[in-house]
Every structure is written in structure tokens, then in C-alpha cells.
Amino acid sequence: MSSQFDADNADNLEEIEKQFAVKAVNQAETYWGLLEKIPGSTLKLTKHDDDIFESLLQDFPEFKEPAKVAEIRESEMKSPEGKKRWRDFCEKFNEIEDYNFGTLLRTKSNEFYTQEGTIFAVRIQFYAIEIARNRYGLNDWAVLKK
Predict the structure, then answer these.
(1) What span, in angstroms and rounded, lies between the C-alpha atoms of 96 and 20?
(2) Which of 30, 85, 89, 101 is the most buried (most CB within 10 A)?
């Protein structure tokens, strides 16, 4: 007897959700720890940073303007049009490990991770936004805040 997994009708398993949340929080804490020690403008997040950044600017030309990447609006990212644009972008990087794994993304580059200022995104979205922020020097304040 074979059964197939039906994701649309599956129950959310609380323990699995907790494990995902822990991993996302750990990743955010690790990243923030790096930003506090190393200017973001000198930080390399992946060996694919150049490709990710170039593709981001090609697919989202609005991000050529640093102010647009400095503040991310969840409503724009998760609108029907936004979801399609991001899905198309994300699939270009399916060779990157855990590219579609859930992670936390700050909505404003000039703020810490906070409950109100953090959204759930997939890792490649995090990479794209944070690589752009780093290249524009928008995260450099974190190392200076001490």
C-alpha cells in the first residue's frame, strides 16, 4: 500500500515548526553578530554574491536605488505580483543550499532585528536584500554603534 504526502491537507507539526523557528533565529543572531564585528560593505555572504546581486538588479531594477532596498515592504513582497517576481528570482538560485529555507529578514536596514521590524522570507531573498544593503553600505552602522 503506497500513500503520497498531500502538503495541502497536512497538519502542521508543532515540533517541526519550532525547529524551523530555532534555526531561523540562530541564523539571524549569527548574521547580526557578524554585522557588529565586520562592516557589511566588506562582508561576503556566499560565493554567489556577485551573481545574486546582478540578478537582483536585473529582476528588480527599483533596487538600484539604495533607499528601496533600505526599507522592504512586506505587502509588496507578498502581493500576488511580488510573489511571482520573487518566485521567478528565487528559482534561478536553486543550486544554492537551503535557498528556499525560511529565514528572518529585517524590514529596515537601519534597525536591529525586532519583532515588529522582521518578516519571514526565504534564504535567497535574505541573501539578495542583505547583499545589496551591504554593497550600498547600509549595514555599516551596526559595527559603529558600540
Answers:
(1) 18
(2) 89
Q: How far is 110 from 102, CA to CA, in rounded Å?
A: 22
Residue written as grid cell 528601496: 68
pLDDT in tens, 17-38: 677 778 888 899 999 999 999 9
pTM of the model: 0.86
C-alpha cell, 103 = 529565514
Please provide the CATH number assigned to the domain covering 16-144. 1.10.3560.10
CA distances from 8 to 4, 11, 12, 90, 120 (A): 12, 9, 10, 22, 20
Extract the C-alpha cell encoding 54.
546582478
